[in-house]
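User: Continuing from earlier, I have the next pair ready.

Assistant: Great, send them over.

User: Here they are, in order.

Assistant: Folding the first of the pair now:
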Amino acid sequence: MVKNNYPSRRQAKKQTNWFLVISSVLIAVLLVVAGLYSVFGVSRTVQQTNGSSVTKSSKQATDATQSKDAKGLPDVSPKDWQLLLVNRDNKSKELNPEIADVDGVSVDARIAKNVKEFLAAAQEIDPSYHLISGYRSVAYQTELYNSYVQQEMAADPSLTESQAEKKVQTYSQPPGASEHQTGLAIDMSTVDSLNEADPDTVAKVKKLAPKYGFVLRFPDGKTSSTGVGYEDWHFRYVGKESAEYMIEHNLTLEEYLVLLKENAKRDDVLI
């Protein structure tokens, strides 16, 4: 008799039962796995979404803070001619600006009208206001500076030339470092001596200066920024918008230019 390989009815039934049990277990396991994936998958998605939202919000907050720091900044460039920086750290060769005469003093022709109007406004506060100095060539500044050094040494023979220069630099700039060579600076006062005008009168003139595009260039308490002590007669043309901003925020030209450059860098990054 040929023996077949088919299971008996009883064996088939038994195998079927085992098959159902195993299938049920597998289905249960799959359902559990699917449930876990669903819970943790959604949670991970939420975390990723929330993480993206937090990152985005953080960036927006940073951008908002930066915008607030630069809020109200005039639409000017630190490279504009009105904002030319000349000091001991930024010396310049002869600039040879086009010159115009205002009340016997030479200034850059581009600001002659502003100087006339500013002088007239100052004279309404005190009629004795007058222009003392304006444009000076580097050659003239060299002669002036050297004469000051000689005067200091004559007044105190114990001084070396180097020591005399240090004293001179508290009230005059070395050749190439003076703003007067730009033609954008004027010395204007009621007297011909530095820091001897009435402080209240100076304060009034300082307050109206931005209307004509000027600022008091070396204000009190800003020597660490400008490198120059307080001067009550030295006014610098920077343009009306810049002057108003600088006065409102108590900025020197050096500080203002730093702010403009930082803002320009932020704009480049955002672009």
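And the other member of the pair:
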Amino acid sequence: MISKILFTDLDDTLLDENKGICQENREKIAQMLEQGHYFVITTGRPTATGKIVVRELGLTMPGCYMAAFNGAVIYDCAAQRVLAQRTIPLFMAKEIIDEAHKEGIYVHSYQSDIILTEEHSPELDFYLSKVKMEYQLVPDIYSRLQTEPNKILMIDLEGQGRLQKFKKQHERFQEHSNSFFSRNEYLEICPKDTDKGSAVTYISQFLGVLPENTVAVGDERNDIPMIQAAHTGVAVKNSHPDIIQAADYITSRDSSHGAVAEVIDKFILA
């Protein structure tokens, strides 16, 4: 039997709008794993919160992997160990954080499983409503970074305007990092050459699975590199228009009604 890999985004793809997972998704994931296929969660979430979801979904058996921080951390869910990770150089992290402060844009980073932020703001509350994490208020984010971070996040609740301007005005940051939008309010700053597409390439090679046996499904712009890197790229119904345009297939179901189960039936178990 030829083993295949399914790479799936979490929020609004595998998980519904209430952060739950439908029974059909659970059953189809179990079925594909029993048949020797691989299941990979790819998420912009930090590793710590990704692990919580993995445990809640019972995805701790052999064949389950996770790419957290948009591919910056590759994690073996069964062995409970990090296989690979990439980071942003500290000098670059300092420049990015300083420039965000100068332009009045909310920014935070991560240390282990804690958010490092300098202010308790509406932006932080918005983020915490999406991701359950502890945070620490610090006088200076950079001085509290003990190691090079896997990601920096900038948030603007008024939309993309200022964030797009920041990205364009600071193109020099691309020499040591990679930035992209995961939603209108989030500008994600990740390590150089790192995104969900790089996770597809790394994990496929690590598992010895040929590119033609890879499938990826997502709903947002940060999922586009992933569905382009996989042989078959799928967008969930009602996804962002940009990923729908990039996809090979669009599901007939949304995230609340077994979109991932549909993908497993059509492209993994078929």
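Worth noting for the second one:
The chain has a mean pLDDT of 95. Residues 90-102 form the longest helix (13 residues).
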